[in-house]
Design brief:
This protein has 29 helices and 24 strands. By secondary structure, the chain is of the alpha+beta class. The chain is elongated and about 160 Å long.
Length: 814
């Protein structure tokens, strides 16, 4: 069998209906493929390696710490998956074998690639495992905005987000520092203060319910029975019984008290319904105290069985208050003295019937039926308030019932999945505690909602393990898929439409899922994908952080930085929303400018501060590689950096990041020996890469960077530097020569497949919120193939990622 025959056989196996890259292979299929791969290695692949590779990577020579001679058997070779992945990359980019060595034919390269690709199918399917992680600052802000309707940026004061693999939604952070917990509490307070309208403080307590201190002893209140309030139409006897059940009577020194909260400063009215039994010469007097200060002294003149209202008022400041009602003048009349018998000559008439008892001493008593407190009018209820208060107390619904309905709806939205009974019970405990301490309904609900906002289910993205198949893999629930989708495209929680498809599980249908993706891409909230993905992929955010030398580049103002950012953001947005090809990122005939940025680029005919689409006549511009923001963030403060620019292109366009520099190699900027004097930057770099340990990376990296040297450190065009004409010629592997940015971009257009795969890897990493591994290669193959078939369109790439195996499935912990 020829080498090309092996490649064709293996590629055919991958493309067959039984072994598509989109579907994981079964155990039996994996075993059969392993046998084929081992045999193919021994008969076809190993001889090719011996011919082209082992001279430098085997036996006594192991350049790059790679010894291919150790893989003599098919079984040993098949186990070395990571090694072969690196080999495939070197072959694909024609970096190996070196140009001076004998080169394999196209068919032989295809055979090796096909064999290496087949190895990916030998392991059990693995969609990866996204761990629990906190919402980053952008996600927190957006989630609060969409949950509460308030665009307040509460996370602005949070600590900086950690970054992993280029994105700040990657880091796996499971803990909360005390500082961040405090920030969450402050953020919740701040947003709820703006959303929840305070109720008017207005409550009434039956006096019998309230605790008291009677003659120095504590006396707890007693709960009222449900019928103690009386009902319309009750008989007089029933009404009297209800009144007595609500009344607390004092005959000795005593205090009845309660607590309540004041939300805002104002004047409060305290009304007491009370009656008295008089004794002595003065009426019953009571003192009303708030936090120990007397705010009113009242006389009770109504009869105990016919109580009446008395009232006073007080100006109060916000905070918890203790209201006390004190019986000031308890009194019992002294027993009357015995009178001496009068002497009389008249005869005493006999008394018939039962003799009358002499009246005993009278006791002054206070009978309090109820205490009411009414504050100043509440705030006007807004639409934001109504988003939370979807249920309110009324004649058919108690405050607690209304609060529970609010808790169930709010928690389901805040937690992005149906709240369970345990979660609801915890929230209701907060409401009950606040209610028992005299808080108004709105304040008690506010505290309950605050508890939800600081719960892990809100501030973390949580996917709980479910029952998996024999490989420990399971498909996400519709609720989890909805959250993955919304945080991918919007950096925020699902909206009502997406929640609906999660609730009825229709989101698990492929057609419904794609429809939701396209709907969401058309929503203004998809700008989050621009700011949070493109902003990091293109390093647009960094434009606000770089510090070009102010004396050399005073033009780098905040106005110019913002325009440079918007140029990149609007370019990504246009390619996404207009269904354009990814090729436009490499080269295109348009960009987005305002007057300030056009002047920076030397382009005329653009006026005003508004960014707009502009057609380019100079093909040295166009695309992200020659965009001012990218050129500026890949420069040094005082000069350009061909190394940084070349490295950026390798990482973000070609998907071939160079390895870190070897130890003990001095950086170019630190080479201060006298031999460097008088050398141009290009000459110094040529000398730098003469070191064999540097040449392998710098040969390609420097060539790309020098192809962009017509652009100065802040992205302006130049033909010369320090009086010398720019030399922007270069050569890439495969003998590909160019001169200047326009020709360099044309060469990259021949590598559209590489760019598509590179961007697919970046976007899949961002979408999953985790680092990719070898087990994701099949998914990347499927995504790249689907996008290529549809004209390399960016919106198709987004759909393909959402439809991919790792996006819809999850592996259990191992």
């Amino acid at each position: 069998m020829t080498s090309l025959g092996v490649g064709a056989l293996l590629l055919a196996g991958l493309a067959s209906g039984r072994l598509t890259a989109a579907e994981p292979a079964s155990a039996a299929q994996r075993a059969a493929l392993a046998t084929t791969a081992e045999a193919a290695y021994v008969s076809e692949i190993n001889p090719l390696l011996a011919t082209y590779c082992v001279k430098c990577h085997g036996g006594d020579k192991t350049k790059g710490d790679l010894d291919l001679a150790t893989y003599r058997s098919g079984a040993a070779a098949v186990r070395a998956r990571t090694v072969w992945a690196k080999v495939a990359t070197e072959l694909h980019h024609r970096e190996m074998p070196p140009a001076k060595e004998k080169q394999p034919s196209a068919g032989e390269v295809t055979a090796i690639h096909a064999w290496i690709t087949s190895l990916r199918r030998l392991d059990p399917p693995d969609p990866g495992r996204v761990t629990i992680r906190r919402l980053n600052r952008a996600e927190y802000n957006n989630t609060v905005r969409d949950l509460l309707g308030l665009d307040a940026k509460p996370a602005a004061d949070f600590p900086q987000d950690d970054v992993g693999d280029g994105f700040d939604n990657i880091a796996d952070v499971l803990s909360l520092s005390p500082l961040l917990m405090e920030k969450y509490l402050l953020a919740a307070d701040a947003v709820l203060e703006q959303v929840v309208a305070d109720d008017q403080v207005k409550f009434e307590h039956a006096a019998s319910e309230l605790p008291a201190i009677i003659d120095g002893k504590n006396d707890a209140g007693r709960p009222l029975k449900s019928d103690a309030a009386g009902k319309p139409g009750d008989k007089p006897a029933d009404k009297e019984a209800a009144r007595e059940a609500r009344t607390r009577t004092l005959t000795v020194p005593g205090e009845i008290f309660t607590q309540f909260s004041v939300l805002k400063e104002g004047r409060f009215t305290i009304k007491i319904r009370a009656g008295a039994e008089q004794a002595g010469t003065e009426p019953v007097r009571i003192a009303v105290k708030i936090d120990g200060q007397v705010v009113g002294e009242l006389k009770i003149t109504a009869k105990a069985k016919s109580p009446a209202y008395v009232s006073c008022s007080a100006a109060l400041t916000p905070g918890g208050k203790r209201l006390s009602l004190i019986f000031l003048n308890p009194f019992t009349e002294p027993a009357p003295e015995a009178k001496p018998e009068a002497k009389t000559a008249a005869p005493v008439k006999p008394v018939t019937g039962k003799p009358k008892e002499a009246p005993g001493p009278r006791t002054r008593s206070l009978s309090v039926e109820s205490i009411e407190v009414t504050g100043p009018p509440g705030e006007r209820v807004t639409d934001l308030h109504k988003r939370i208060f979807t249920s309110v107390p009324d004649k058919d619904r108690s405050p607690r019932e209304a609060a529970r309905q609010i808790a169930e709806r709010f928690a389901t939205r805040a937690f992005r999945k149906p709240a369970n009974q345990e979660q609801i019970a915890l929230l209701m405990k907060v409401f009950d505690l606040a209610d028992s301490q005299g808080e108004t309904f709105s304040e008690a609900v506010k505290l309950m909602v605050k508890a939800a906002l600081i719960a892990p289910e809100f501030s973390f993205r949580i996917e709980l393990d479910q029952k998996g198949d024999s490989d420990g893999v399971y498909r996400l629930s519709a609720w989890e898929l909805a959250s993955r989708l919304s945080y991918f495209l919007w950096s925020s929680m699902p909206d009502d439409d997406l929640f609906k498809t999660a609730q009825d599980a229709s989101l698990l249908d492929a057609k419904v899922l794609e429809s939701q993706v396209r709907r969401m891409l058309g929503d203004p909230k998809a700008r989050a994908l621009v700011d949070n993905f493109a902003g990091q992929w293109l390093r647009l955010r960094t434009i606000f952080e770089i510090t070009p030398d102010e004396k050399k580049f005073p033009e780098m103002t905040s106005e110019l930085r913002q325009a440079l950012y918007e140029e990149g953001a609007l370019m990504f947005d246009a390619v996404l929303r207009e269904g354009r090809s990814l090729v436009d990122f490499i080269d295109c005939d348009f960009t987005f400018l305002n007057e300030r940025l056009a002047r920076h680029y030397g382009i005329t005919g653009v006026s005003g501060p508004q960014m707009r689409k502009v057609t380019l006549s100079d093909r040295n511009r166009g695309g992200i590689i020659t965009m001012g923001s990218v050129l500026a963030v890949t420069s040094n403060p005082t000069r350009t950096s061909p190394v940084k620019r070349g490295k950026w292109v390798l990482e973000e366009i070609l998907g071939t990041p160079p390895p870190p520099p070897p130890p003990m190699v001095e950086a170019l900027d630190k080479e201060n020996d006298t031999s460097s004097a008088g050398l141009s930057l290009r000459q110094r770099m040529e000398r730098h890469r003469s070191d064999p340990s540097c040449a392998s990376c710098h040969t390609v990296m420097d060539a790309i960077g020098f192809g962009l040297e017509n652009f100065d450190p802040i992205g302006r065009w130049r033909d010369a530097d320090a009086g010398a004409q720019m030399d922007t010629t270069g050569e890439l592997p495969g003998g590909l020569k160019f001169s200047g940015p326009a020709q360099l971009k044309k060469l990259f257009l021949n590598h559209t497949g590489d760019f598509t795969r590179c961007l697919s890897e970046k976007l899949l990493t961002y979408a999953l919120g985790r680092k990719l591994g070898v087990h994701d290669e099949d998914a990347l193959d499927a995504i790249t193939t689907a996008v290529a078939k549809d004209g390399h369109k960016l919106d198709r790439l987004v759909v393909a990622i959402v439809q991919s195996y790792p996006f819809q499935y999850r592996r259990l912990a191992r």
